[in-house]
Amino acid sequence: MKHILKQHLTVTFQYEVYFSENIFSIDNSLFRDALAPYLKPGLVRQLLFVIDEELSLAHPGLLKQIDVYFQGQVHLALVKEKIIIPGGEVAKNNPYYFNQIVEAIHRHKVDRHSFVVAIGGGSVLDVAGYAAAVSHRGIKHIRVPTTVLSQDDSGVGIKNGINFFGKKNFLGTFAPPIAVFNDYQLLETLSDRHWVAGIAEAIKVALIKDATFFEWLRDQVDGILKRNADTMKYLIWRSAQLHMDHIASGDPFELGSSRPLDFGHWSAHKIEQLSDFQILHGEAVAIGIALDTTYSFLQGYLNECDYKEILRVLQAYELPIFHQLLKDERVISDLLDGLEEFREHLGGKLTIMLLRAVGVGLEVHEMDHDRIREALARLKKLDEVQQQRKLVSLPD
Amino acid sequence: MKHILKQHLTVTFQYEVYFSENIFSIDNSLFRDALAPYLKPGLVRQLLFVIDEELSLAHPGLLKQIDVYFQGQVHLALVKEKIIIPGGEVAKNNPYYFNQIVEAIHRHKVDRHSFVVAIGGGSVLDVAGYAAAVSHRGIKHIRVPTTVLSQDDSGVGIKNGINFFGKKNFLGTFAPPIAVFNDYQLLETLSDRHWVAGIAEAIKVALIKDATFFEWLRDQVDGILKRNADTMKYLIWRSAQLHMDHIASGDPFELGSSRPLDFGHWSAHKIEQLSDFQILHGEAVAIGIALDTTYSFLQGYLNECDYKEILRVLQAYELPIFHQLLKDERVISDLLDGLEEFREHLGGKLTIMLLRAVGVGLEVHEMDHDRIREALARLKKLDEVQQQRKLVSLPD
Ligand SMILES: NC(=O)c1ccc[n+]([C@@H]2O[C@H](COP(=O)([O-])OP(=O)(O)OC[C@H]3O[C@@H](n4cnc5c(N)ncnc54)[C@H](O)[C@@H]3O)[C@@H](O)[C@H]2O)c1
Ligand SMILES: NC(=O)c1ccc[n+]([C@@H]2O[C@H](COP(=O)([O-])OP(=O)(O)OC[C@H]3O[C@@H](n4cnc5c(N)ncnc54)[C@H](O)[C@@H]3O)[C@@H](O)[C@H]2O)c1
Ligand SMILES: [Zn+2]
Ligand SMILES: [Zn+2]
């Protein structure tokens, strides 16, 4: 009788990310086909839909289309009631929406072999994914991301969460979906602001993983801003792939101790918060990329040519590299406090991803506060120049 | 650009289950030593304790002992406030206690690199484990089970949960702890009723996995009922080991579709519920074992000798094999409905574990309602005989 028993568990998760269009059009069988392996003769699985309200308003035919799509299915039954929740951060801030989904799962007896399908931006996906993950210790979950950011980053990943006590993602889990459908057509109604914001995550992942993709991004500004479909499809596809590889090759559930932060994200999270979420996540990431790129240059890690090109690309995409909030000394010192909070969050040892070159990251464990201030001052200036140019060029 | 990206993730979890005594006695370094690999020079990790109220009343020195145990530790800091929550099902029924733990994690800034330590029966472990699992997407969690049932079964496993909408474990996750400490000394204050109830899980696992262990259990009734320490230590150790092996060899997160129910548990869950939790989980499991054993015999799967011996062993341990509730026709039909609910819960295909012999399980996908009634009638009779014997033997 040994006094220690050792437990060793290995858990494997698999899922597919599909790229398609009009996925609920009756003649696109992709979604139905993807569910087929989960169905069994003689049994009926339920589908509970959770849908982003603005998305559903922008696509008025969608709800009806979904009903028609599943009509006559023998092994699939739609839950009649669809849960419509407002998009954006409010979905994660107000626990009402989490409760609403859990309550619907209970009321309609949606079980572990049925499906919760979430359609919407990253916020709706995060709350629906969390509700599905903890109901019955995990109901099968399907994601249909409808923003650039959720299609090229968050929606193809494995995290979910809601805000609590004013803290971003205070409650949440790691819970891989069983399938993700990136439907390009749903993106078309997205505002320009959200269209552009999601590109920041593609630039981020290119900068630390794939110089070729960054060059491609540099060369495609026009097509993307003119909403060329094929260009955006490739951007999303490649960014999703790089994000997925990153998750699979690392420590997916972040069980280890020194998880390096996502590039540009230590300040991004804090900037979002300091602006009361007036600055979008993608926008804050753009500012964060600009800041850490400038810092990398000032520290001598990154050469001037790369540094300038990165800032030029951000600006070309009309992504912010600075925000007037950051002119306020109190905000700057809050931002620097954020660095300390991250140190705590990481268990005392800070790990920050910087750049050695385009496509090549560099981890550091310390950041110099004065250098950060210097970087902010540079970005402020660059931003002013850009604003003036815009003013000057307005007349023509 | 392929239209499908496949994601494949492998996640590994490891933890130790330690068997010891007086784990918070200053000269027992086991607990401190187990934490050592998680500590880093120059950093301080927090420990937030969540403690079963009745346990703490039964061991009045415990809280103080914990304070002393961690005094002078340089890399570990106790959160001053200890969360004391009532033991038993109320801890899981009232969301107040879940919120209380989450709120303390927030208020004391307990991060992913700190520890939530839960000490108590299965109920307190379940709610504390759930709160730790979803806070910051998973704080490191340590369990100190203090009932026979939680030391020999639930506490060494990976599930947690709370009740919601009156449904057992409606919310919960699979979240392996980082360590479990089975402290025999803490068990000594347990009531006889709870002492005996936890044995049902050992009998259950022996019956489907290990005939030798069942024979051992058959021969140790006296020692166990007289609370012989070495006998109970072996019972817990072997039962924990069999339960752990079962988890590791199967589908730990129950992602697959046809998870066979635990032996004796389809009716146990329903009986607990129908009695408004007046019947303890372990007691309900004993009745469930008796029922499925009798059913296995009546169906010709199990020979009469094994059948009789199993019932004799349950009765020798003073575990119930029947309950007066089950005399009521409405309760019986609720119980049979429970079978249908499980069919739904398993996604339409019922899988029930029965017995082919002691130590040899048998999975079936259908149960005959009349046979179940016949089994209940037999158990009712056997139980009456036993009650009469007790009455007769009372005077001496
Ligand atoms: N889980 C993760 O790993 C992860 C990673 C990064 C970000 N996030 C989270 O994602 C959230 C941001 O997600 P987001 O950028 O997708 O924004 P969002 O979900 O907040 O959506 C932005 C707005 O667009 C609307 N909308 C969505 N799709 C639309 C469409 N096709 N047409 C018109 N309007 C549409 C929404 O209703 C909302 O008002 C944040 O909460 C962030 O924390 C999560
Ligand atoms: N997570 C799982 O895998 C799993 C598996 C089986 C059961 N469970 C759950 O476990 C719960 C039952 O747990 P349990 O049987 O340990 O009972 P319990 O947690 O309900 O505790 C029983 C009673 O004993 C008290 N107590 C605990 N330790 C004591 C001690 N050492 N001395 C004196 N009193 C003590 C408690 O305060 C409580 O009043 C149920 O909710 C059940 O659903 C969970
Ligand atoms: Zn991001
Ligand atoms: Zn049990």
Automatic annotation (TrEMBL), chains A, B:
Q: Which cofactor does it need?
A: NAD(+)
Q: Could you confirm whether the keyword DNA-binding appears in this record?
A: no
Q: Give its E.C. classification number.
A: 4.2.3.4
EC class name: lyase
Q: Which UniProt keywords apply?
A: Amino-acid biosynthesis, Aromatic amino acid biosynthesis, Lyase, NAD
**Limits of the 3-dehydroquinate synthase N-terminal domain:** 83-195
Superkingdom assignment: Bacteria
| Family annotation (InterPro entries) | Dehydroquinate_synthase, DHQS/DOIS_N, DHQS_C
Which CDD domains does this UniProt record tie to the protein?
Answer: DHQS-like
Q: Name one Pfam family in it.
A: DHQ_synthase
The keyword NAD belongs to this UniProt entry's keyword annotation: yes
Molecular function GO labels? 3-dehydroquinate synthase activity
Q: Where is the 3-dehydroquinate synthase C-terminal domain?
A: 198-331
Q: Which NCBIfam families match?
A: PRK06203.1
Q: What is this protein called?
A: 3-dehydroquinate synthase
